[in-house]
Structures are given as structure tokens and as C-alpha cells.
Amino acid sequence: MTVVHERHSNRQVAGRIQFFRSGHLSKALLCFTMACFVIASGCTTPGMHRAVQQNPQTPAASPEVLAVYMPWFGDHSHMDVGYSSQDPGVLRKQIQQAHHMGISAFVVDWYGTRGPYSDHNFGLMQQAAAESHFRVALLYNESEDEDAQATDDAIAAFDKAYKNYIGPEAKFRDAYLAHNGRPMIFIFPKRGHVDWKRVLQHCSNWEAAPLLIYKDVPPAQYVGDFAGAYAWVQPGKNGWSPDGSDWGQQYLDNFYKTMKNKYPDKIVIGGAWPGFDDSGAKWGLNRHMQSRCGKTFDDTLNFYHRYYDSSAPIPFLLIETWNDYEEGTAIERRTVTNCSNGNNSAGQTATQKGN
Fold first, then answer.
1. Residue 3 located in a structural domain
2. Tally of structural domains, the chain
3. Omega of the bond prior to 349 within 30 degrees of 0, cis?
């Protein structure tokens, strides 16, 4: 994303699927999310139907499932997806839908004072979350300004977050996502100009110091300032393949291996995504990642098992995303087309009215 409100380097199902859920990922969640991909006619992949039909038991221990949420729809600078992120009724329905899918919190894209529309909508979302025993967290996008200004922007943003959403004066603070009593703030880096040591020092008087979670491994000078890292949708070291066939296997393998072997004391937040297509984004670079008739989501959703088992699971898994239609990662109302050869592209009904 190259402007302040955009980002990123990012048949009908028969019967209702019930979920075994206690705030954790289960195979039942996989059944539902795979079912989302079967909604469109034309997908006849046998494995998809097997995934929908199975009725597994809940694992003893699994990650808590979060999903990235884009709060900017209804703003004229973004595509029309048929709803406004400022509509409390829409927010309540989205929370209810996510809750039924086993998702316990939205990690909301946020720019602090640089993005007033999204900031206002985060407040609405937090209020709706408080009403539904759901939770929210901030995904702070770094400023692209030079060093001092980028740091000042981050400090101003954190001050606003503490006052309005996290601290003792925040009306709906109980709906803010915390881990071991400390609020989690996710960081999406841009040019790496923020002095995070200075930001953390500024937050030292918070009631509970924030846990900062960086995209991938943070720069060496700030490793000690970050509590953990999250994986983000992207291909491997060879970059985006023209045919979209690289679904991120090499990247995820390196992410989990690095976190397990080099940073065993850090919070590991896995990543899962259904595909990628930024051709609909104003800032798009024509990057593609095939959904492979739902297999990309299936593979990324379960990849962490290669490095972590139920005896020591990762604490969180982040779905990327709930509703980023502009970069083709939304699972909110997912369909698939052209499944006969297993190399389908992802489809999303972005202009469908209602929710």
C-alpha cells in the first residue's frame, strides 16, 4: 500500500455446520472455512466435499483464531463492497458470523490520527465487540515519514489508543485483545523508521505495558522490544510467480522454523490465507496467489503443525483477511470458480449488497 489508507507489500452448502469452539481453532473450523469455498457452483474437487462432510472432534489444544479486518469500506477512496464499515448493524453481523466460524477477535487495520475514518470505525467495532463478548486489537501501520517524524507519529497514535481503546478511561476496554493481561498491538512495518525503543519507553507508564507483535522477525536492534511476530501473506524467497502457483510454502516453513529455533521465548502468531490478487487495488502490482480450489487456505491453516504440536501449540493463528477484497484475501463471503483442474483463481462477491 502506498497511501495512508491502503496497505500491503496484502453449490450451496447443505445444512448448517455446527462448531465445537472454546476460543480455539479446531478441525471443525477448517470444515467451515473449506465449506465457504464450495459455495460457488463448479467446484467439484472431491477433497473439498470430504472436508465439509467430516465431523471431527476438537483437538485438546489449538491456537486461538484471529482475523485481520479492514475498516475503510464506505470511504470513496476504496471499492464498493456493498456495505459501510460505519454501519453498526453490519459490524454486529460480521462479528456474529466470525464468532460462529470460531474466530475470537478482529485485528483491525489502523493508522492512528493519520486515518480518521478507520479510527472512528475501530471505535464502533470495539463497542459492537463488547456487546457480543468478542475482542478487537489494533494493527498499527507505520508512518512512511523520516525517522523522527515516524516515531513521533507512532507515539501520538499509541497515546490515542491508550486513551480511547486500551487504558482505564476507555469505555469498552474489556473488549480489547490481551495476552496474559497485557494488550496486544500488531505492527505493520513500512520503511522501518520508527524507533520502537523510544515508543516502548513512552508507554512505560501504561497500566499494563503493551505487547508489540511485528510482521515477520523485527530488525535486530529491536528484537528485544517486540514480544512476538506474526506471519503475513506472501510467497517464498523467489517472489510472486507469474502464474500465482507459489502459495507461501517456503515462506511459512522459514517463518515457523526461525521462530521455533531462534526465538523460542517469543509469541508466535501463525498466518493463514485463501490466496491473493491485488489487481483490484489502486496500489496493486498485479500480484497473484492461486486459491487452488481452497487448498491454499487448507495448507496455510495447518502448516504450523509441522513445527508445533498439541503439547506446545502456538497461541494464535491470524487469518489474512476477513474482508480485504481489494487484495483478494477476504474470507467473509468467499467463492471459487474454475475448480476442475485444481488451479482456480479466487473469487469474491465484492459488489454484493448487504452482508
1. no
2. 1
3. no
Cell reading at 161 = 489508543
DSSP H helices, the chain, are 27-37, 46-53, 88-100, 116-131, 147-161, 196-202, 249-262, 295-302
Residue 260, all three cell numbers: 521455533
Grid coordinates representing 210 are 503493551
Nine-digit cell string for 270: 501463525
- C-alpha grid cell, residue 34: 473449506
Residue 115: Cβ-neighbour burial (10 angstroms; 0-12, 13-18, 19+): buried
CATH code for the domain in which residue 138 is found: 3.20.20.80
Q: Does the residue 260 lie in any domain?
A: yes
Number of Cβ atoms within 10 Å of the Cβ of 266: 18
Pairing of strands 346-348, 334-336: antiparallel
pLDDT score for 336: 53
Whether 19 is covered by a domain: the verdict is no
The answer to whether the CB of 183 falls within 8 A of the CB of 208 is: yes
Secondary structure (DSSP) of 119-141: HHHHHHHHHHHHHTT-EEEEEEE
Length reported for the chain:
355
Instruction: Return the bridge partners of 276, or none.
Output: 289
Find residue 136's DSSP bridge partners.
106, 176
Please answer whether residues 35 and 105 qualify as being in contact, where contact means their C-beta atoms are separated by less than 8 angstroms: no
The mean predicted confidence, pLDDT, of the chain is 82
Mean pLDDT check: name the lowest of 25-34, 110-119, 193-202. Answer: 25-34
Looking at the predicted structure, is the pLDDT value of residue 8 above 60?
no
**pLDDT category of residue 339 using cuts at 50, 70 and 90:** low
Residue 13 forms part of a structural domain: no
Model confidence at 128: pLDDT above 70:
yes
Distance CA 42, CA 337 (A): 6
Identify the pLDDT of residue 191: 82
pTM: 0.83
Q: Please give the grid coordinates belonging to residue 323.
A: 474482508
**At 212, phi and psi to the nearest 5?**
-90, 130
